[in-house]
Amino acid sequence: MSVLGLQSANSAPAGPASDAGTMRKPPLVGWTHGRLLAGKRAFDLTVTLAAMPVWLPLLAVLIAVVKISDPRNPAIFVQWRTGYRGRRFKVLKIRTMVPSAEQLVKELMALNEVGGPQFKMRNDPRVTRIGRFLRKSFLDELPQLFNVLKGEMSLVGPRPGAACLDEYSDWWKARLMAVPGLTGRWQIDHHLCSDFDGRARLDIAYMRCRSMAQDLSLLARTVIFAFVKRSGI
């Protein structure tokens, strides 16, 4: 599914009170046109494939650990997410929650820390003991490197949300004008915002300034946060 009438993030409003326009102009200048877009894709493939001898065995070990800890349930969790231009695709994650997590979220919605069409809370009671470590270190996202190889995701970009397009306000849709990423501004700077509006602003700020330098910086900061500060959410 693609988005009809998506607004360009070049003219994305500052907040939800602004009127949404239609996408009559090209998306943001940055890694969105011609050689720049091809360069970002080439970068994703080169880094992911070059690092495969490291991340693939690690992924196998983590899957085995999760499976041994809970033999009755799958170690990989598959969820539909909304990606580039509103297209829905299946995201892969190492399971970090109890099997009934998606049913329990309705009972916990009042405790949502980010608001909007996504649920997040730091001390989520649905998360397993092993899951807490995996989420803090971002290792639960490791299977999404297969999504990167398929071209559904990039190494860096706005994180794909589970909410369908019709749950997005018009100005939030601007963040869908970039290929979703394994990591992004919100993963590093989530302390700067407390709701989905703030998250969308961070994503749009990233899109306005996209460059190889910024992507490398965000990847490096993600590693630091994951294995030094361990501040995943």
Structure in words:
With 233 residues, this protein is mainly alpha-helical. It has one domain. It is built from eight helices and four strands. The chain has helices spanning 34-50, 52-69, 101-108, 129-136, 144-150, 185-189, 196-208, 212-229, and strands spanning 76-82, 88-94, 154-156, 181-183. The strands form two sheets. Strands 1-2 form a two-stranded antiparallel ribbon. It is globular.
Short description:
This protein has helices at about 35-50, 50-70, 100-110, 130-135, 145-150, 185-190, 195-210, 210-230; strands at about 75-80, 90-95, 155, 180-185.
How much strand content do the residues show? Answer: 5-15%
- Tell how many strands the DSSP assignment holds: 4
Shape: globular
User: What Rg do the Cα atoms give?
Assistant: 17 Å
* Largest sheet: number of strands, sense, barrel closure: 2 strands, antiparallel
Kindly report how far apart the N and C termini lie.
29 Å
**Biggest sheet strand line-up:** 1-2
Q: Tally the structural domains.
A: 1
Please trace the helix and strand order, writing H or E for each element: HHEEHHHEEHHH
Number of helices: 8
- Helical content class: 40-55%
The chain-level structural class is mainly alpha
Low-confidence residue ranges: 1-32
Mean pLDDT: 81
